[in-house]
Amino acid sequence: MHSFGYRANALLTLSVTILAIMCAMASFSDNFNSPSPSASVEVLNINRLQKLSNGDDEVSLTLNISADLQSLFTWNTKQVFVFVAAEYESTKNSFNQVSLWDGIIPSREHAKFWIRTTNKYRLTDQGANLRGKDFNLTLHWHVMPKTGKMFADKIVMTGYRLPEEYR
Amino acid sequence: MDESMGEVIACLLSFSEMDWQGQKAAEQLMQIMLIAFAVVAFLTGFAFGSFQMMLLVYAGGVVLTSLIIIPNWPFFNRHPLKWLDPSDADRYPKPQPTVSAKKKSTKQK
Are strands A151-161 and A38-51 parallel, antiparallel or unpaired? Predict the structure, then answer.
């Protein structure tokens, strides 16, 4: 501690160490938040269900997605990434998961939303299994913190069914 | 503006270095201030729900601490060592290296 340089060095190392501890504590404080998000997805229309030239089924949907994810936000949350995935079983794969729509919620003010949209990404099966298929629509989210641990969870909505015939 | 800044810097450089007790006080003060500002910053950030607030309060604390700790303030030089003048040194007996007999014998073995 006898010169400018030594004192500046000691101050820098200690202050950065303490900053790291503060960030760790901020991340730890997220564990005390118990969120209660809600979501619902309505299939407004099956625009088309057809067999592609390579033999795979493809479906186009119009969805009405509404969600209230405000309780996910804490003081340590940077943004929340959400996506809606169609999940179903087929003879080839025991679990198929196809992302239909996604979005980034930048703040708590934008976390209560509804959106009416056709599927942003194509829902194509590996095969021709989509006719009359029961499927789930699942809202997944990843909470991205400013520092520390990332949280992820989902809401599964069941009871959707595709039409029996191509259209 | 530049002249007054120059005067301030010249004034800071003219201070003599910290003495031993000043160095110890500076280190302890630094640790106490940084930890205190960290606690205050975390609590205000948590209370206001603002991560940015925590960072700003802590940054302010670090700047204030560095202003107090880093320059050679006269406050840290209240117990300066008094050195003899070289011309006086001859009038005093020179310190003799005191080596105990035991140590010497162990070294020789």
Answer: unpaired
